[in-house]
Specification:
- This protein is α/β, with parallel strands linked by helices.
- Strands 2-1-3-4-5 form a 5-stranded parallel β-sheet, sandwiched between helices.
- The longest helix has 17 residues.
- The structure holds calcium ion.
């Protein structure tokens, strides 16, 4: 399973990358919105973990572009914003789930597993 982690916070990003790799995922970690978009265009991911507050391109913009391009990759939003409107717009635009920082790693991993299961159960014409 290949995950894209878009998170500009060094501590969270490093911790997550390490933990997810230990759990057996292959992880690409980017810290910039434009890098995230580039990664999405150049590789196929099973899940994208997307921070909303990213430099150069906002997470919501990235998500909007993704769905506009009919990319149905599961997206889990990671946000420090406790503003409920951001989470609502994230879900409206097409996020599959979200977590508000600070979060428990165990819960994040459980949600990742759920999203990946849900996705693999769906019939798609995607070439994996
Ligand atoms: Ca951030």
């Amino acid at each position: 399973m290949k995950l894209l982690l878009a998170e500009d916070d060094n501590m969270i990003g490093e911790g997550l990358e390490k933990a997810l790799k230990q759990s057996g995922y292959s992880v690409d970690w980017v810290q910039d919105g434009l890098d995230a978009e580039h990664a999405i265009q150049s590789a196929e991911y099973n899940l994208i973990i997307l921070d909303l507050g990213l430099p150069n391109k906002d997470g919501l913009e990235i998500l909007r572009t993704l769905r506009k391009n009919h990319n149905e990759t599961s997206v889990l939003i990671l946000t420090a914003r406790d503003d409920i409107s951001d989470r609502v717009s994230g879900l409206d635009i097409g996020a599959d789930d979200y977590m508000v920082k600070p979060f428990a790693l165990e819960e994040l991993e459980a949600r990742i597993r759920l999203l990946l299961r849900r996705k693999s159960g769906k019939k798609t014409n995607e070439v994996k």
